[in-house]
Design a protein that fits this description.
Layout: H1 2-24, H2 31-34, E1 41-42, H3 45-61, E2 70-74, E3 81-84, E4 88-92, H4 93-98, H5 102-117, H6 120-128, H7 133-147, H8 151-162, H9 165-190, H10 196-209, H11 226-239, H12 249-266, H13 269-275, H14 283-295, H15 299-312, H16 317-329, H17 333-346, H18 351-364, H19 367-383, H20 388-400, H21 404-417, H22 421-434, H23 440-461
Parallel strand pairs: 2-4
Antiparallel strand pairs: 1-2, 3-4
Helix pairs in contact: 1-7, 3-5, 3-12, 5-9, 5-10, 6-9, 7-8, 10-11, 12-14, 13-14, 14-15, 15-16, 16-17, 17-18, 18-19, 18-20, 19-20, 20-21, 21-22, 21-23, 22-23
């Protein structure tokens, strides 16, 4: 029970900190420093590709550059999605696991695209400037009360401090939510997609909100009253003149594979096997069971199932990736590598598949494979320089080659991305001593030191 109370208090504290950040205009932590701040992200080539396929037509319909918008999967079981500064879309794993169709996920993305296209983040920042210091102080004191173990007192302080100023902010947010809904239906119409999925998602939200509706102050909601949103969507679906087409046939399978993959990796094997029993021979169910048996672990059964998937779809890179992952994580590195190579052959543009292959090549621990790993990691980092894990693997590979200057520079890159600025400066200084003065790696180490010190100064001023 004490652990449960502690988790509740921690959750309340996190909520208050997020709200305080909104009130004071503090930036949301982004992935390069999120790991250092306790935010966990999920990186998976297949899931990220699925979300990108769903989102790209909507971004284009909104007049946005799809390549400028980053999509992040937050490792959190709650039903949520949001956007943050710099055109970053965050989707909780809980939302992906609880949705019933591709249309629901697409509807949520359409809504969040409405926020981006509407410039709501910029407008919200200007509104926050009008929130009084007294309101902010109420949040600070409320947070302190929760830290002290009195969440009841903390809640009272927050409500007391926010009644006037914060309600005006929420009213503005309610207008933004309604605007984002209208934008979502426009984008869905332009892409000839139904708004039914967004409606079904709102109905799911409504069923959850009703559980606590008697305790909610309508003015304190961060979204418009759900019934108002549902009514708008129903009316739009009934009256739209758009030429709505049937959902692409592969979307349902893409959604279901994404959903079962998250469930199988994030929930217990026993739970997965109960949810997808042997009587269910659908591809998503077999996929889920192969992952569950891998995690159990039951290597022969896991391999039997993933090989069945490969036989059914021999050109699917993600099934080859899974077989390689199962073998790699079972300690069979040399056996795993050919399957990872095949996955990259089938989808060479995937940075995550290539990083996985590079990791297996490094673990093979031969000069030829180490050099091949460096080549793969260089390809990834040239176009995706913000992958901390890739920099870590590159540091290991250079270390195997006794190139300690290059290894240190790669570790400094990783530290900078994780927001460990003190470490970034120290490691980059070490790299400079080991690298040829004026060489590209030496110059980059200089840049890392400058960037890390700027981050340190900015932190002191906040």
């Amino acid at each position: 029970m004490r652990n449960i109370l502690n988790k509740i208090r921690l959750l309340q504290f996190r909520i208050l900190i997020v709200v305080l950040c909104l009130v004071l205009g503090v930036s949301v932590a982004f992935p390069q420093s999120a790991a250092a701040k306790g935010i966990n992200f999920i990186r998976d080539a297949e899931i990220e590709n699925t979300l990108r396929v769903f989102a790209t037509p909507l971004f284009l319909a909104a007049g946005l550059d799809p390549d400028s918008i980053r999509i992040h999967i937050v490792n959190d079981n709650s039903l949520n999605a949001f956007v943050a500064a710099g055109q970053q879309l965050f989707v909780h794993s809980g939302l992906l696991m609880q949705t019933k169709s591709a249309g629901e996920v697409i509807g949520v993305i359409a809504h969040e695209t409405g926020h981006i296209a509407g410039g709501h983040l910029v407008k919200a920042a200007s509104v926050r400037k009008g929130v009084s210091a007294a309101t902010a102080l109420g949040y600070i004191l409320g947070g302190a009360a929760v830290i002290a173990g009195r969440p009841d007192v903390g809640t009272a302080l927050v409500v007391g401090g926010a009644t006037a100023g914060f309600r005006s902010y929420l009213k503005f947010s309610r207008a933004q939510e309604a605007s984002a809904d209208r934008a979502a239906t426009r984008f869905l119409d332009r892409t000839q997609q139904s708004s039914q999925g967004l409606l079904e998602f709102m109905e799911l939200m409504s069923s959850q909100e009703l559980l606590n509706s008697s305790h909610q102050d309508p003015y304190m909601r961060t979204h418009p009253i759900t019934q108002e949103r549902i009514s708008y969507l129903r009316n739009h679906i009934e009256n739209t003149r758009a030429n709505i087409k049937a959902e692409p046939k592969n979307f349902a399978m893409m959604h279901d594979r994404m959903k079962v993959k998250l469930q199988a990796f994030m929930q217990s094997p026993a739970r997965t096997l109960r949810r997808y029993p042997e009587s269910d021979q659908s591809m998503p169910a077999v996929y889920a069971r192969s992952i569950a048996y891998h995690r159990k672990p039951d290597l022969p059964r896991a391999l039997e199932l993933v090989e069945r998937l490969i036989d059914a779809l021999p050109n699917d890179p993600y099934f080859w990736e899974l077989k390689g992952q199962i073998l790699f994580e079972s300690g069979k590195v040399n056996e795993a590598r050919p399957f990872m190579e095949r996955a990259v052959e089938l989808l060479p543009r995937s940075a995550l598949l290539r990083i996985g292959l590079a990791r297996a090549q490094i673990e093979t621990n031969t000069p030829a494979m180490t050099e091949a790993a460096i080549g793969n990691l260089d390809l990834v980092l040239t176009s995706n320089p913000d992958y901390p894990f890739a920099w870590r693997q590159l540091a290991i590979a250079y270390g195997r080659q006794k190139k300690m200057g290059e290894s240190s520079r790669a570790l400094a890159e990783e530290a900078l991305l994780y927001g460990r600025n003190d470490a970034a400066v120290a490691i980059a200084e070490r790299a400079k001593k080991l690298l040829k003065r004026g060489s590209p790696p030496w110059l980059r180490a200089e840049d890392i030191i400058v960037a890390a010190k700027e981050n340190q100064n900015a932190a002191k001023q906040r």
